[in-house]
Amino acid sequence: MPIVLRFVVLSVACSLPLLAQQPVLTVQQSNSTALFQAVSVSATDARVAWISGHRGTYAVTTDGGATWQAHVMPGRDSLEFRDLHAIDARRAWLMSAGTGARSGIFQTTDAGVTWQQVFANADTAAFYDCMAFLNDRHAFAFSDAVNGRMPLVQTTNGRRWTVRAIPSQDGEGGFAASGSCAQASAAGDAWIGTGTAAVPRVLHSTDRWKTWTAAEVPLVRGPGAGITAIAFRDRLHGVAVGGAISGSATGPRAARTADGGRTWRVIPDPPFAGPAYGAAYARVGNAARLVVVGPGGAAWSANDGASWAMLDTASYWSVGFGADGTGWMVGPKGSVMRIDWQRVTGTDTNGQPPR
What we know:
CATH superfamily: YVTN repeat-like/Quinoprotein amine dehydrogenase
CATH architecture: 7 Propeller
Number of strands: 29
Number of domains: 1
Strand content: 35-45%
């Protein structure tokens, strides 16, 4: 099938800096009709990306998306793989979300020829939402709160995962929408975005998730509402986005921090209707570009959400980028959209190159 290039007409919420140029979107064929909810691009080879979603489905490209190979994990076709982490074309972890035994983590070291379940959720009340990797050995995943504690499973080798719990609000949890509700950085920081409780919060750890501090985020709150995704471009600068996934709560859908998550302030909502589901930064030369997606469309920002431009009006659930800025958005009915940025020079609009 011919590749379709989409040059989207710029629809601007507030004018973006002249330095920023609209990216090019390329429709790609996943060879699946599953709902995809997660994207992971190899940090060492931007031509390699994995996507995953419902009906036990995942797909892999090794040529930048020119071709995708879609697969269903044997015996796991009822699972929803709502998060994943890929090292390269052979090594990856998929996380299934759901209550009880429907939550689990699976590892392959042979490009999906075989899979090993490295974590099986034994808590019938736990529902795991997202996982985050510091490197190819250290990672964690977290669950919605159970009896006032938030289960957190962690590993130091990628193969053996152990469960502990951290304090939480009543009813607090994440949204397993895009694999974007937790993030870890090479510097050792980790963040978790939450909702469905009295206040949305970002939890922050600087010691490989031994201890956590919490900060209130001024987004829409209540049952079915809160933070769906977080994205940090360095240790200090990040955004939290969300909305009302269910129910009728109203309020801000986006906030940003400049101090590593200690304090947050509201920024303009992305210019599409409904909640945001996923968020990620792309490195474009010395600049940082933020993309936020949801069922109502996709938008991007060159200044940490101070102003936005529409990227697409199609429905997307997740977005992810590689080290060179190459990225993909994914969503319903097997949809896959590649994002390519025109190269820019200079610093980002905050005057600091991303770190």
